[in-house]
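Saturday, quiet lab. Running sequence design on the structure tokens for the scaffold JK sent over.
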């Protein structure tokens, strides 16, 4: 991870003070900064918390405590620390930095929620063991991203020139757009499955009528020719239903309910074929029972289709997400040269000597290699060949603030 270390190098000259003045908040912050710079985040957190015990109003220690908590993956606690700093800050610069850090913490928390709730491929269950509605899950994740976007907008109000806040706001909005597109696809799939369920119910009724007519013909001793023709028509309707379900799967809909319904429809189709053969062989009683069995199988399919479709991935959404990701890559590339210039010069949020303000930089996104293989991967866009570019264009490392108050 790249870090802005200019302030840290200035503070390193005071490292010896920390050992001699453990009770001094400034020394504790300096010591914590040294530990943070060496990625000893647990020890850094201990030093910042010790500084806060000595001076609970020390915003530098509180800000740096949030930085350490972020690095330890304790995102909720980090966000709370940055909120506290923002609430007590008296100037736009510190407010902007606290808002940005809070936005990065909330963005990573939203990403974590996305991976946990949509990336596993296992349906989420509520306290009573029932599947949680997929739209509800998407809405929860969208609200989490919305919180991050709100913080980036707030950071930009305090510091309109913060290009990285603008980039992260764009990233957040991009992911929200894909989530909302996924939500629409889920709703469309749900509507399509409800329509198929109604068709299955209608065909089941037709199949029941055919069974009744077969029974009537058996009682009256009529020729089974009419029964065979009627059954053939119902079988054709079932074939049409099966084809529509297959088309829905080809469009990318993945649902346990749909798979179960297809199995029920195939079972009904087998029973219908057997009924046709029985009618042809004048085994009317057997044909009538097979027809009723087929009707029951179709009703089971309808019931399964009416369940909540846990749509996992849709081809159309995947294609659109890849297109959106391609557009994002172009924007990232445009910003990467500016980011490289910032990394070699003064950092946007660097602390000025004598000010009790936070240092530059923000929590960084976690990266994972591999091609998208789930909804979460699709939205996060973890493609390996873009990780380094995105690292430059979207990240700002999170050095702790200096301890340099005017004591």
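Result came back. Writing it out in full:
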């Amino acid at each position: 991870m790249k870090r802005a270390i200019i302030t840290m190098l200035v503070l390193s000259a005071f490292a010896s003070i920390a050992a001699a003045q453990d009770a001094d908040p400034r020394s504790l912050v300096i010591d914590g900064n040294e530990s943070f710079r060496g990625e000893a985040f647990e020890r850094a957190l201990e030093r910042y918390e010790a500084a806060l015990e000595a001076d609970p109003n020390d915003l530098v220690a509180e800000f740096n405590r949030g930085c350490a908590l972020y690095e330890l993956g304790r995102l909720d606690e980090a966000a709370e620390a940055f909120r506290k700093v923002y609430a007590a800050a008296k100037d736009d610069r510190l407010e902007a930095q606290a808002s940005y850090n809070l936005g990065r913490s909330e963005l990573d928390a939203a990403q974590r929620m996305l991976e946990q709730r949509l990336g596993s491929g296992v349906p989420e269950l509520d306290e009573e063991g029932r599947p949680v509605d997929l739209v509800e899950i998407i809405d929860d994740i969208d609200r989490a991203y919305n919180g991050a976007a709100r913080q980036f907008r707030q950071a930009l109000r305090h510091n309109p020139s913060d290009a990285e806040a603008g980039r992260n706001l764009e990233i957040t909005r991009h992911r929200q757009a894909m989530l909302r597109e996924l939500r629409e696809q889920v709703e469309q799939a749900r509507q399509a499955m409800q329509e198929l369920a109604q068709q299955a119910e209608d065909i089941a009724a037709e199949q029941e009528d055919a069974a009744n007519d077969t029974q009537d013909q058996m009682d009256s001793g009529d020729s089974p020719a009419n029964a065979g023709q009627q059954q053939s028509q119902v079988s054709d309707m079932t074939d049409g239903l099966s084809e529509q379900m297959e088309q829905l799967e080809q469009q990318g809909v993945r649902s346990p309910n749909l798979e179960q319904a297809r199995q029920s429809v195939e079972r009904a189709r087998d029973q219908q074929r057997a009924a046709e053969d029985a009618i042809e062989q004048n085994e009317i009683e057997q044909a009538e029972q097979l027809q009723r069995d087929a009707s029951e199988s179709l009703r089971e399919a309808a019931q399964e289709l009416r369940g909540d479709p846990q749509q996992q991935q849709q081809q159309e959404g995947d294609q659109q997400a890849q297109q959106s990701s391609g557009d994002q890559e172009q924007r990232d590339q445009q910003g990467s040269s500016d980011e490289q210039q910032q990394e070699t010069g003064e950092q946007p949020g660097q602390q000025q000597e004598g000010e009790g303000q936070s240092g530059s930089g923000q929590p960084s996104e976690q990266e994972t290699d591999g091609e998208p293989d789930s909804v979460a991967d699709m939205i996060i866009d973890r493609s390996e060949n873009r990780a380094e570019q995105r690292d430059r264009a979207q990240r700002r490392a999170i050095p702790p603030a200096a301890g340099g108050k005017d004591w």
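Notes for JK: Residues 13 and 202 are 82 Å apart (CA to CA). Residues 163-220 form the longest helix (58 residues). Ask whether to fix the surface positions before the next round.
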